[in-house]
Structure formats: C-alpha cells, structure tokens
Write a structure and sequence with these properties.
It holds the Pfam family TetR_N. It comes from Streptomyces cellulosae. Keywords: DNA-binding, Transcription, Transcription regulation. The protein is built from ten helices and no strands. By secondary structure, the protein is mainly α. The longest helix has 24 residues. The radius of gyration is 19 Å and the shape is globular.
C-alpha cells in the first residue's frame, strides 16, 4: 500500500494528540483519526499499525513535549525553585493538554520506554534531587514520591475533585509543594 500524499506518521501523531486533547486519550482510534482527515482507515495503515501504535506515538510526542518544557523550566534552578518549576510544568501541561497528559501516562513496552523522553524526565528529576543530598535508594523513592504526588494531585484536580470546596486549589498546591520541599530536606535515613 502506498502512503497517501500529505499524510505522515508525524502528522498523524500530532493530529492524534490534538484529538486526544479534544475528546480524551482513551477515545483516540485510527478510525476516528481517519474521519478527521476524511480518508479511509486503510489509508492510515501505511503510517501506523493500529490504534495501540497510534497511542504509543502520541505518548512519545507528549513525553517529548513535557521533557522540553521541563528542561526549559529547570534551567538555572535548584532546590525548592526547581521542585516548584518541575511540578508546575506537569500541572500546566495537564491543564493545557489533558489528552496529551493522559498519553504521557500510557504504558510503553520496555524497549520503547528506554528510548523515549521518559528517560530525560527521570534524569531531570534526579538532577533536581541532588540539591536535596539524597543518595540511592532514597533518590528512587523520592522520584516515585514526586511523580505520585504530582500526578495524583493533577488527576484529582482535572477530574473536578477539588472544585466543590474552599480553599482555592492554588493555595493547596503551594502548600503541597512546601510540604514536599520540607520532607525532601529532612528525608529520613534508610533503616
């Protein structure tokens, strides 16, 4: 099958990411994308294998975008400033691109994950944690803690879980980041 003129794997991934932001990552399919391009589904199969392949490509795009934003935000920062900058990158990205943010959580096979920008995320987080003087295995524990807190807060907030009560979520977010900074500064030694 010859590729349709104007369609590329990159263009489909970008369109899929836009579609994910509009309708939700879980609703992205090759069929839905074909409707958007007003082409037959078969026209897309020379560029993507199936919906899983498409979602993987969207996930890779989202991870790359997030890593680029994080690198820019972290440049020249350390300690709490770096922590807040990284946290805000994730939160802002989720607000601006909810479908892409969901895609960044998509489970990748080990080989794809190892070649993805997810590796950059881990390295940047570990670099941030060097400012807190954490050694292994505490660094790994802290990477997991930060990812859990950032993703958990953002997911609950995006789902409307905090919208029914005061105080404002900005105040809570600030206090969560203060608490993380305090915890990281006084991280207990391994038993």
């Amino acid at each position: 099958m010859t590729p349709r003129v104007g369609l590329t794997t990159e263009r489909l991934a970008q369109a899929g990411a836009t579609l994910a932001d509009e309708v939700g990552f879980d609703r992205v399919t090759v069929s839905e994308l074909a409707r958007r391009f007003d082409v037959k589904v078969a026209s897309l199969y020379s560029h993507v294998k199936n919906s899983h392949d498409l979602k993987t490509r969207i996930a890779l795009l989202a991870l790359e975008e997030l890593a680029d934003r994080a690198a820019d935000a972290l440049a020249g920062r350390a300690g709490k400033d770096a922590l807040v900058a990284l946290a805000n990158v994730y939160r802002d990205y989720a607000r601006e691109h909810p479908g892409r943010y969901a895609a960044a959580q998509f489970r990748l096979d080990p080989e794809t994950a190892a070649a993805s920008a997810g590796v950059r995320h881990a390295k940047m987080t570990r670099a941030l944690l060097r400012g807190y003087d954490l050694d292994e295995p505490d660094q790994t524990h802290a990477v997991r803690l930060l990812g859990s807190v950032f993703h958990g807060y953002v997911s609950i907030e995006m789902g409307g879980g905090f919208s029914h009560s005061a105080p404002d979520t900005e105040e809570t977010w600030s206090r969560v980041l203060d608490a993380l900074d305090t915890l990281l500064r006084s991280w207990p030694p391994a038993p």
